Amino acid sequence: MATPTARETPLQWLRRRNDKSGRPLLTGPQLQAGEKLAEDYWHAQLMPRITANWSAPAPGERTRRSAPGTGVEMRDAVVAARQRVDRALKAVGPEMAGLLVDVCCHETGLETAERSAGWPCRSGKVVLDIALTTLARHYGLIPPERPPAARLRHWGDADYRPTLDAWQPSARQGTHAETPQPVALPTRAKSA
User: Fold this and answer.
1) CA 161 from chain center: how many Å?
2) SS3 18
3) Could you give the number of structural domains in the chain?
4) Which of 8, 38, 133, 174 is the most exposed, having the fewest neighbouring CB atoms within 10 Å of its CB?
5) Which domain holds residue 117?
6) Number of H helices and number of E strands within the chain?
């Protein structure tokens, strides 16, 4: 099976560019994640055809048995690649999956992808950064984000310790029946 042509992709172009602070627009794990998605997409044979499909066998009465390494094995590889693409795009979410497919897989420029989505200029960089970070986290290239430690917060002083005295039955002043009940408000008489 042939491999995609070796030329600079939009992801590689973005990796070589720096932002205002001098950092690359894409990190190494983001570039790897985008290239892995593109490779799986290509192996899944999801690229749209430009010409007629001449690889289909001609109809005939006799059928031949294929050589090892083609046929069923290739079909399994295609199905596995499609499943990997599907899992990756589900991990990113439907909001960002379209941009990833356009930029990473179809190698559409970022400006063209922004225009086709109807986004403002230069907003695609932010969305692509978030999408590629999520994709890199899905592929295990970036460690998962740890949730902030769950701490019990209170407004008391550092040495404040609450007590349960107010909840003890002996500390209660009255019973539920002795608590005041809300009073009904008087109704207004309708004027004629």
Assistant:
1) 43
2) strand
3) 1
4) 174
5) 10-48+72-139
6) 6, 0
- Amino acid making up residue 169: P
Return the bridge partners of 173, or none.
none
Task: State the amino acid at position 39 in one-letter form.
Answer: E
Q: Is residue 16 part of a domain?
A: yes
Max CA-CA distance within the chain? 99
Give Cα 100 to chain centroid, integer Å: 10
Classify residue 26: in a domain, yes or no: yes
Residue 121 belongs to a domain: yes
98 CB burial (10 A radius; 0-12, 13-18, 19+): middle
The alpha carbon torsion through 42, 44, 50, 52 (nearest 10 deg) reads 140
For the segment 11-58, what is each residue's pLDDT rounded down to a tens digit?
Answer: 888 888 888 888 888 889 999 999 999 999 988 888 776 666 666 665
CB 109 within 8 A of CB 11: no
Is 144's pLDDT higher than 50?
Answer: yes
User: For residue 144, is it within any domain?
Assistant: no
